[in-house]
Amino acid sequence: MNGINLKTNSPQQTKLIAKLLAREILSKKLKAKLALVLALSGNLGGGKTTFARGFLRGAGIRKKITSPTFVVIKNYKLQNTNHKNIYHIDCYRLKTAKEILNLGLKGVLANQENIILIEWPEKVKKYLPKNYILIKFKHRKKENERIVIIKMNPHTKRVVGKIN
């Protein structure tokens, strides 16, 4: 699996990468049987929620965007796109992977009109489709510097297109 490595020096740059990725994804007519999943992986404070906020803004969401840390799942309706919803899921507080099923993950995954941004995906990996897009966040020595790694597989290459 190859990847794109992008360096950011501020939360604004991280949001910009996410915004561009959202616009690229929403501009494509995808032929999928399941939801499109972006698995956001990294340490606490790594940039996952910042990225999710940028992605949601890039998708046209204008209302206040808050972390789903305590509610686990938030749904945002999309207008005028091939996708109808973006679900932002934060699995950090889950004790077991099975808890996510009680919150309706199977139904959300089964709908190809959904995009799912999932933080801490390693906690529920066994329930994710095999063609998810893995986005890793790594801290660098400087406080705001991050490396954002978008892992590529054949499906990801078609979706990501010209982001790099």
Q: Could you explain the architecture of this structure?
A:
With 164 residues, the chain is an alpha/beta fold. 27% of the residues lie in helices and 27% in strands. It is built from five helices and seven strands, in the order E-H-E-H-E-E-H-H-E-E-E-H. It has helices at residues 11-26, 48-58, 99-102, 105-110, 154-160; strands at 2-8, 36-42, 73-77, 85-90, 114-119, 133-139, 146-152. Helix 1 crosses helix 2 (48-58). The model has no long low-confidence stretch (mean pLDDT 87).
**Helix and strand sequence:** EHEHEEHHEEEH
Count of discrete domains:
1
Fourth-level CATH superfamily? P-loop containing nucleotide triphosphate hydrolases
- From the 3D structure, determine the CATH topology: Rossmann fold
Structural class assignment: alpha/beta
Biggest sheet strand line-up: 1-7-6-2-5-4-3
Q: Which bin fits the share of residues in helices?
A: 25-40%
Sheet bearing the most strands, described? Answer: 7 strands, mixed
pLDDT average, as an integer? 87
The dominant shape is: globular
Provide the low-confidence segments as ranges: none
CA-CA gap between termini = 16 Å
Taking all Cα atoms into account, the compactness measure Rg is 15 Å
Q: What's the total number of strands?
A: 7
Q: How many helix segments?
A: 5
Strand content: 25-35%
CATH architecture: 3-Layer(aba) Sandwich
